[in-house]
Model the fold of this input.
Amino acid sequence: MEIDIRPIQLSDTASFRQAVGSVAREKRFLMTTDAFSLERATEFVSKNIDNNYAQYVAISDGEVVGWADIVPKSCPSEKHCGGLGMGIIAPYRGQGLGDRLLASAIRHSWDIGLTRLQLGVFDDNHRAMALYQKHGFQHEGTMRHAALIDGNYRDIHLMAQYRV
Ligand SMILES: CC(C)(COP(=O)(O)OP(=O)(O)OC[C@H]1O[C@@H](n2cnc3c(N)ncnc32)[C@H](O)[C@@H]1OP(=O)(O)O)[C@@H](O)C(=O)NCCC(=O)NCCS
Done:
């Protein structure tokens, strides 16, 4: 089936929230371990749309099966920095969707004037790190024991790229 990659629409919010929840509950890849409330998800998506921030979704049969967003930091001295978040629900991984979503989000972010893109990734998430490296991100450092999930400490690799 053809899977469309396109900017998110407000009507995708419930489906987006469900996709995030599904990946979050795996407790292996994301900082969050469950879905955000619908209210918080709506606020996030509306803000991204209203400000023309990069938020792309992969749509299969009308449902969100993956997402990538790059949202500028709110602190005045960090407004040139965009933080990346992304995920693909399990059955759709390894089919090139992450590659397509990330390419769209990065292109959009440079186009709106961001000059630094950054992210954090668990140090055992080799697939994500390979994808990020392929798209120009470089390792900048490691936050040791930065997350604690179900009693297990996790290290977070910081990665970034910039055009300054
Ligand atoms: C990480 C993730 C976004 C990658 O998206 P994907 O659609 O599965 O990956 P793609 O099929 O687009 O592959 C893109 C690249 O990822 C890397 N990759 C894909 N599968 C891989 C694997 N099994 N092992 C290592 N690298 C792999 C490769 O660099 C690949 O590029 P290539 O095919 O040109 O070699 C996706 O697997 C995912 O959502 N995982 C769970 C949630 C997550 O980790 N989110 C990121 C949190 S920081």
The chain has a mean pLDDT of 98. The CA atoms of residues 55 and 69 lie 4 Å apart. The helical segments are 13-24, 38-50, 97-111, 126-134.
